[in-house]
Design brief:
Distance between the termini: 51 Å
CATH class of the largest domain: Alpha Beta
Strand content: 5-15%
Oligomer: single chain
Low-confidence stretches: 232-249
CATH architecture of the largest domain: 3-Layer(aba) Sandwich
Order of helices and strands: HEHEHHEHEHHEHEHHE
Helix content: 40-55%
Structural class: alpha/beta
Mean pLDDT: 91
Number of strands: 7
Amino acid sequence: MRSKIVPVTNVSRLTEAANALLERAPGMPGMGLIHGETGYGKTTAVTWLITRVNGVYVRALATTTPSSLLAGIARELDLQPRPSNVQTVEAIVQKLAITGRPLFIDEADYLVENKRTVETLRDIHDLATVPVVLIGMAGIQRRIQSRQQLTGRIAQWVEFQPCSFEDVQALSRELAEVGIADDILKRVYELTRGSVRLIVVALNRIEGYARARGLSAIALKDWPANADFFLGNAPRATQPRAKPALAAV
């Protein structure tokens, strides 16, 4: 299997949103929210995006406070600790304004109920004028909607959704090193319900099965009936199993 980012629908939408934030007109809101169920490729896509735009990445914890959040951002910016939160915010704002690096806050679910933390992020966004992107699980968008300090500033809302069949085809085409027919891809699509994580696991198992048998392409007819795409080892052979020998009496 090849290792690369495939521009499936979620990745394309994320890229468009990021470009819109980076290229927005002066004075326009510059916050973004990336959210969705686990398994839809959010973590991989966001990691790729952060690298692409040289972003500043900080992961929130259940114990995160405004002070610890600021300390984490300062550390990622190679800033020395400041005596007070006000001075730390000023140093962060100055460094972000100079570098133009967007700020990404992962696990933002932990932060949205804390008014002071929300206001701290708002201050950084307003003063540094760089994109500030929150990353969270499904449902965070509903909780954020009660925070007017944020909703008026969030210009891009990106929800990661299940892959389409066209996405499955693109993943197979770009990642697999053997040809995988549409009939087997349709079966994978039905079983995974659009989870990119499971789709990649299935493609890897199908490819391994094909390569072990010297096949440059594989279709559903080549895959053993009722064989699992996700768990355990790929089936060893398509021939029926031999009956066990009877024990001597």
